[in-house]
Amino acid sequence: MSRTHTTVSLNEIRFYVTRAAVGVGVPFGVAEDFATAVRWSVCFGIDPAIVALSCLTALDLDPSLGRIKLLGSREWHTIRGEGGTSVVFAGISMTEIWQGAGLPQNRLTVLSIDYPLLALAYAAFGDGRPVKIQWPGVHAVLDGAGGIVIQAVDLEALQTRGSVDVMLTAPDSGLANSGDLHITSSDIDAANHRLLCNGVALDAPAWAGIVELFRRCLVPSNEQSRLAGAGAGLVDTD
């Protein structure tokens, strides 16, 4: 039996995924970064509703996935969670540690992360220190100025999920040939343009799950909630 789909915009994905993450207890700023990572990864043909719902449901069922630890020395660091590592929290921590001037290192490893492609998305957000990111079957180099080259064995390796170790190192002379899938920043920009124009087709049940988590952020519309400051006032003067 075929699954039903619904089409939404990239901005709707960012809006609802941000608030769905808040609905499972993620701080708003961290939730915004997660939604941006999900939005960026859409360019690789994944269904963002399925990915986001999977990550958030796992975190909702086991909050310990978000309790991450940093171990290491001056030359290397390791991020790991308790029994697994949620990219919702590890993605932004990974990026901040790699870019941080106070923690110089040659290698940073994130152990047992639940969705490595989203980890790559976090690193690709903006300019910064160049980095090579790899997990089994995938190598990616970010030049620190918005350029990116990704090589993978195949699309399945790029989209893999579930307890994968991701390693960050300083880029060397180039990428070893790791397969037939070769993606550059221009390919990503072209895919992003198509999605902006046409929207994104999502698995309808998964999107309904995102919306259900989003509804946890809402407060009831009643006299008590209005007295507590919810909703707009009768006179808008701010």
Descriptive overview:
The chain has 238 residues and is an alpha+beta fold. It has one domain (5-217). Helix content is 41%, strand content 21%. It is built from 9 helices and 10 strands. It has helices at residues 10-23, 28-41, 48-61, 87-99, 116-123, 155-158, 185-198, 204-214, 223-227, and strands at residues 5-8, 69-72, 76-80, 107-113, 131-135, 138-142, 148-152, 164-169, 181-184, 200-203. The strands form 2 sheets. It has an 8-stranded mixed β-sheet. Strands 1-10 form a two-stranded antiparallel ribbon. β5 and β6 (138-142) form a beta hairpin. It is globular and about 55 Å long. The mean pLDDT is 84.
Strand order of the largest sheet: 2-3-4-8-5-6-7-9
Low-confidence stretches: none
Q: What is the quaternary state of this protein?
A: single chain
Order of helices and strands: EHHHEEHEHEEEHEEHEHH
Number of DSSP helical runs: 9
* Ends distance: 52 Å
Number of domains: 1
What class do helices, strands and sheet pairing give? alpha+beta
Q: Beta-strand percentage?
A: 15-25%
Alpha-carbon Rg, integer:
19 Å
Helix content: 40-55%
The description of the largest β-sheet is: 8 strands, mixed
How many E strands? 10
Overall mean pLDDT: 84
Inertia-based shape: globular
